[in-house]
Every structure is written in C-alpha cells, then in structure tokens.
Amino acid sequence: MKRIFLNFKAFTLITLTTGLLTACSTDDNTDGVDPNPEVSRWITVAAARMQDTPGNGNGGTLIYSLSSEDAKDPTVSIEPFDNGFIVPSNRTARLQASEDGSTIFNISYAGDTGGNYTKYTVEGGQNFTQTGSAVSIEPYVGSAPRWIKLFDGDKTGAAVFVSSENEMSDNGTPDDATDDIYLRTEATMGIVTLDLENSLIKEFQEHSVRLTEEEEAEGYYISRIDMPTLNAAGDKLYIGARLSKVDPATTEGDSDYEILGSKTIVLDYPSLLNPTVITSTVGHGNTNGYRSINAFEYNGSVYQANQNDPEGSYILKIGADNKYDDSYDFNLDDALGVEDAYILAWRPAANGKAVLAYRHAGSVEGLSGRPQSFFALVDLNAKTAAKIEGIPYDVDFELFQYQGFAVDGDEIYVTQAPVGQNGNIYVVDTATGEVTKGAQLVNVEGSHFIGAF
Questions:
Q1: Where is the signal peptide (predicted)?
Q2: Which end of the chain is more exposed for a tag (fewer CB within 10 A), N or C?
Q3: Per-residue model confidence (pLDDT) at position 40
C-alpha cells in the first residue's frame, strides 16, 4: 500500500505550465518522482476528532490534502488525525474551499478565536500556508457565526445570526407584569459579507424579520438562519430559516405545533437591504440546513433542501422571480421509496445531478447516538433519486455533521468511514453513476470524517 507520510521532504511539487500543482508522493518501493505527472486538483479531507463523546467532533478539526489521482487510488493511505493540519477553531471548524480546490477558507467556531476568518493555500499533505491577513467578523455576527462562501468566483463570503425577544403589551401596572399580553416575538437578523480575496468586511446590515401578522400572533418566529445563497442574476441573496413557536398564553416554548410552509428570507444584494420572507406551499419545515451548504444555483434557479418536513425532506425550487416555484414537486420519500427521509447534506455537479446524504425512518442508531446515513444520486431535472450501492454502509456510518463534497466536473468526491473505523474516499461519476473506491482513510477512536473539499 502506498502511504502518504507526514514528512513532505520526500515529495516534489512540480509547477506545471498551466500554473496548476500536482503532488507526487514516494512509493514504499521507490524514491523517484513520477516523470509524467498529470494535471490534477487538490482534494482536501476534513477530519473531526472526538472530544468526550464518540462522533461529537468537538475535539478539533484536521485537514489533509492529496492529488485527485491519489484520492482515486485505493493503494494510497492517509492519516489525517495523526498527520493533518490543525485548523484553528475551538469546536468543529466551518470550512469552505475554492472552486478549484487550491484554497481553504475557515472561520473559527466558538471560543476566544470564534469568528476569526483565515484562508490557506493548499500545498499537499499537512501543508497549508496562510495567505492574506486574518479578520474577525465576531463584532458583527458573534463568535459562533453561520457562514458560507457564495458562488461568485470565490470572491465573497456571507455570515448570519438571529436573536429573538418576546414583545408584550403594557398592562398599565409597571410593578405587575402578570397580566401582560403576548404580541409577537421579535427576530433580529444580522448579516455581514466578507471580501475573501482581500480579507475585508464588505457590508453589514441588521433587520427585523417579520412573518405574517397571523403567524406572529400564534407565536411563530424565525429562530435560526443559515446558508446564504446568491441567485443567478446576482442581485438577491436567499437565507434559509428555521421556525420555532411559543405558546402565546404562557410565552413558553411550544414543541407541539403545526409545521408551516418552508420559508426563506430574500435580501437585495449587495446592499443587504429590503428583507422579505417567501413561503413554499410544497415543502414544510426548515431550510437553514446544518453544517453543509443547503441551497445551490443551477440553470437559473436555486434548489434548496428542507429538513424536518412531516412528509420527508423535499428539494424545493426558487425561480428567477425570487419566489418558490410550487410547480416543482420533488419529495425524497417518494423518490427513494422510504419514509421520513432527512437530507443531511448535498451537492450538485454542473450537470444537475447531485450526491445527497440522508437518513430515514428505520435508520439504526449507532455509536454516536445518531441514525445510520446513506448516499443517494439525485437528478434535479428528472426529480429522481436512488441510493448509491457502490459505497459500503455501516450502522456507525452517520453524516449529521457532514460539511463538504469536492466537485470536479461531473465527479463528486465523498468520504466514507464509520465513527472510529477506517474507511475510504469514494468518487461518484454523476453522469454515469459509476463509483470508484479511492484512498484509505485511517481513523482513530470515536472520531469521524466530515467531508472532502
């Protein structure tokens, strides 16, 4: 087995005439360099170390890069937990990659360095060189920001937060608030855009985000937002939202309530002004996602996953008119033949076919305390989905914290490894459905892999 080592003195980085880099590793039986290197891109694997509980990933994030050729080679073995680059972050780092894989962007999550933005040039193995200055977005969106890289040629990132406070009527007796009447819950949204090239703050705005009067009177409010996505025209930004509810009679949290139609906040871009909320009549549930990008522009529209839908997750469509296209009905339960499908993460290639991580009713709970996960191949145009059979599934293989899919043309790279067990990189050719088993991922106790970039 060819093993990629920590010490990269045994490696030669060859600068190609195209300006791309390819990493050539030594083989156990040779000490020469491939005389005919192929043009490739870097694939960066992200690993989340256990803190106290298997699969929690809060013990730190490590990254390790290899060429796409090595990523596809099952005789290659990498050990990111032992040899990886430690990404600055108190908890699991929030990572993004440039479209060509040559740069990794990070914003530290929580702790003293929470909200710090840094970027790194990918140089192979554990070698990531910080480039440009660091900048803190903590004054704008806190030390645990939800952020994403917009698909505008790696120029801009966007980070968001929301806070809430109940509004009560004045009963006329300042010393006795027992008769105050609930009016609504104020949701205040902050959003900042970040110049990824020059490490500068571009714009910041703060808004009150309103639902309908009827919804607010019933106690509904937007409690979490995430995953800003730029529309095809580049003049609107869509932000996914999660709804929560209080009991108007008591102002206590209400957990047994009607799930409303999926909602998205729409802002003017780049000004970040004029927030409105659009609502789907097809899907119900949340659109904020979790750790992975939840919405993507494709062929002039934005396609968005939802979660916690009573009918199982949908992929929803927002048209060029910046409204939900309710003629587009793509339900994962129906497409996969399961119940209570839950989209954990997904990523389309340019051909409109996507790899999607999901769980469903009947998924067995594993070591992490979370249900087993699976990958599916999805066609946005045909509205079809099928479980990918060329990837092994274990009860301890779960993707709740999954962050990244590396896209190279029609190919999508994913990581597969149960919690605390070794696994592999797999490459899915979205055009043909063919699956290639790639490099081995060496794991450590209680830890897991959270994606390829």
A1: 1-23
A2: N
A3: 84
Report pLDDT digits (tens) over 117-175: 999 999 999 999 999 899 999 999 989 889 999 999 999 999 999 999 999 997 655 55
Q: Is 263:306 a contact under the CB 8 Å cutoff?
A: no
Closest CA to 303 of 232, 244, 401: 232
Contact 296, 347 (CB under 8 A): yes
Which carries the bigger pLDDT value, residue 255 or residue 221?
221
> What CA–CA distance (Å, rounded) separates 77 from 289?
32
Q: How many CA atoms lie within 13 A of 358 on its CB side?
A: 35
Query: What's the CATH code of the domain at 306?
Result: 2.130.10.10
Q: In which band, very low, low, confident or very high, does the pLDDT at 113 lie, cut at 50, 70 and 90?
A: confident
CB 308 within 8 A of CB 292: no
* 58-92 burial: b if 16+ Cβ within 10 Å, else e: bbbbbbbbbbbbbbbbeebbbbbbebbbebbbbbb
Residue 159 in domain: yes
End-to-end CA gap in the chain:
24
Check residue 99 and report its DSSP letter.
Answer: T
Which residues form the domain of 226? 42-452
9 in a structural domain:
no
Domains held by the chain: number: 1
pLDDT over threshold 70, residue 39: no
Cβ neighbours of 445 (radius 10 Å): 11
Task: Answer for the pair 443, 368: CB distance below 8 angstroms, yes or no.
Answer: no
| Domain assignment of residue 257, yes or no | yes
What percentage of the chain carries pLDDT values higher than 70? Answer: 89
Strands 435-441 and 423-429, how do they pair?
A: antiparallel
Has residue 351 been placed in a domain? yes
Q: Are 284 and 262 in contact (CB under 8 A)?
A: yes
Q: Report phi then psi at 161, rounded to 5.
A: -150, 160
Residue 214's H or E segment, with its range, is: helix 213-217
The rounded radius of gyration (Å) of the Cα atoms in the chain is 23
pLDDT (0 to 100) of residue 145: 87
Global pTM?
Answer: 0.90
Stronger pLDDT, 434 or 89, i.e. the higher one: 434
The H-or-E segment that residue 338 falls in is none
- Cis peptide leading into residue 270 (ω within 30°): yes
